[in-house]
Amino acid sequence: MDTMFWLIWGCSDFSLQSTEKTQSNYPSLRVSPDRYNYGDIPPQSSTSTTFTILNEGSAGLDIHEISIIDGHSFTFFFPQETRTIPPGESHSFDVIFLASGEPEQAWIHIESSDPTHPSMEIPLYGSSPSAALVISPNPVDFGYTPVDTTIDSLVFIQNIGAMESEVQNIYLPESSFSFADITLPFTILPGETYEIPVSFSPFTEDYFTEQLWVQSDIGTHMTNLQGTSEEVIIEEDPCLDPDLSYNQHPEATLRVNSGISPVYATYLYTGAGYTNELWLQSPHLIHIATGHETPEDTMVNLGTFSANQELFFKMFVRDTGYHYYSGPAHRNPDNYIHAAISYLGDCEWLVGFEDMYNGGDQDFDDILMILSGDLQMLP
Predict the structure, then answer these.
(1) Confidence of residue 23 (pLDDT cuts 50, 70, 90)
(2) CATH number of the domain where residue 203 is located
(3) What is the span of the domain harbouring residue 173?
(4) pTM of the full structure
(5) Strands 36-40 and 119-127
(6) Are residues 218 and 286 located together in one domain of the fold?
């Protein structure tokens, strides 16, 4: 199965000191659609879709460059005489996809006079139909099984492609796991699912893992089998609030419980086009990381704090000079939520920020960090 990766772009922000940015005459670029998947088409055939460049600003938009990056199966034509788009107007052009028989991914690269987005990339995807087998679940977890007891489960082989596939062999090393006798080879049609009965029979107290292999005419496929005959001792998580669980909580805040142990912040990564700085704002001003500059997994000791103090964080967007804050929406200049917190377990919390004015796409991944310590999340 193909995996698709989406580009996430940071957008304009507003500072805490001003709720309205000074307006001036400048162009504003928007492209519709902002990504496109041509789907599956037969090899050597073609299809096209229309993209529209809109100037939503108050000055003429100059298109300096349009090109296709990393894709030989995509072509387009953009007339020279339409390289300047007046305010409020648009221009459309077609991008053609010629299927090569392999999955394809590329980007439309646009350079323009838009001061906010001088460079923009639009993802393109396309592929040709073929056979594709998926084995599920992975892993097959039998859980706890007492010694000298057998538990049965099923492994599913599914053809999610557009052509039939032949399963030629199934192999499982001799172990506490086994599978039922199956007549081989057999053919799986598109959309069809085949069941393989598997069993787990532990003879000693231990934790067991093995791999079930499936050989087909399009390759080798595998799923993991696991189970245990040792009773699991569940330890209570001292920081888990069952009412909040592990869900993402926009507008939530973090407070210190006892204040005995230090709090650590670990910078994860940035998914933004802008360069964003991450700070502890209160009770002390401490720089944690800067996107695109600070190495990933950098850890900062924020120190100890008094019990019940809120840890109040901010994101500063260098490109625009604006700030956004964790907690309630009214702290931010656009009156939108710009941070969300999720509990990860083991007294760790994921904190993510959104750097787009008016709340953006609310995925809260423009810059992320993990906080660890004796903390409590309040929704």
Answers:
(1) very low
(2) 2.60.40.10
(3) 133-228
(4) 0.41
(5) parallel
(6) no
